[in-house]
């Protein structure tokens, strides 16, 4: 996305656009991406406005909680038994992209519904020499420190976002992670009960 914005900055004049007036917009996961673009050092001087709808990088599912576990599971689903990082990286680096996408797409929706997590979401990156990190610290830290892009932001929501048939135990599925409670704990059950009695 950062590279696309760089391309727009350099080429939008050919389409009658103004490189000093680029607005990014995203909905749901796109809202997460848009909010990340306002915080990333890669794009700070590339955007002039942002529209964020039904999702921000503050959502519990906006980042991967355990990227190594996710990579290991993906590699395993494709037949790799390596447990070490180097072996997994070598395997995934040499696997055709089509195979990676197909295998990942089979687990993504299930993970979101069962665990309230997206398997391959952004990560807070470590900084390496010669490598540009999109975000090297938490979005919350960047946001609360005021180091996001100083641009106008419009935020809204979509009615009935991610509507689907829900299970009776839905609050037990999503609430614990959002509140930092252990899933299946007495505290999680009590919070779910209090919330459900409010509706």
Architecture overview:
β1, α2 (29-39) and β2 form a beta-alpha-beta unit. By secondary structure, the chain is mainly alpha-helical. The radius of gyration is 20 Å and the shape is globular. It has three domains: 1-61 and 124-156, no CATH class; 67-115, no CATH class; 168-197, no CATH class. The protein starts with a helix and ends with a helix. The chain contains eight helices and three strands. GO terms for molecular function: carboxylic ester hydrolase activity. This is Carboxylic ester hydrolase.
Quick recap:
This protein is mainly α and 199 residues long.
Rounded to the nearest angstrom, the radius of gyration is 20 Å
Order of helices and strands: HEHEHHHHEHH
- The helix/strand class is mainly alpha
Quaternary state of the chains? single chain
SSE arrangement:
Layout: H1 2-11, E1 23-27, H2 29-39, E2 49-53, H3 67-77, H4 85-94, H5 97-115, H6 139-145, E3 153-156, H7 170-179, H8 186-197
Keywords: Disulfide bond, Glycoprotein, Hydrolase, Serine esterase
InterPro entries: AB_hydrolase_fold, CarbesteraseB, Carboxylesterase_B_AS
GO molecular function, one term: carboxylic ester hydrolase activity
């Amino acid at each position: 996305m950062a590279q696309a914005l760089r391309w727009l900055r350099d080429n939008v004049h050919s389409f009658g656009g103004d490189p000093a007036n680029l607005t990014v917009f995203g909905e749901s996961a796109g809202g997460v991406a848009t909010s990340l673009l306002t915080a990333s050092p890669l794009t700070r001087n590339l955007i002039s406005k942002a529209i964020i709808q039904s999702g921000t990088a503050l959502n519990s599912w906006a980042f991967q909680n355990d990227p190594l576990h996710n990579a290991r599971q993906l590699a395993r689903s494709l037949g790799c038994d390596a447990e070490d990082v180097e072996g997994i990286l070598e395997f995934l680096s040499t696997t055709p992209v089509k195979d990676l996408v197909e295998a990942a797409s089979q687990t993504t929706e299930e993970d979101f519904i069962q665990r309230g997590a997206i398997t391959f979401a952004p990560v807070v990156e470590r900084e390496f020499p010669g490598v540009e990190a999109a975000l090297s610290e938490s979005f919350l830290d960047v946001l609360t420190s005021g180091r996001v892009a100083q641009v106008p932001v419009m935020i809204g929501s979509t009615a009935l976002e991610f509507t689907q048939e829900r299970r009776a135990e839905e609050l037990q599925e999503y609430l614990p992670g959002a509140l930092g409670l252990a899933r299946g704990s007495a505290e999680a059950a009590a919070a779910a009960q209090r919330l459900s009695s409010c509706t």
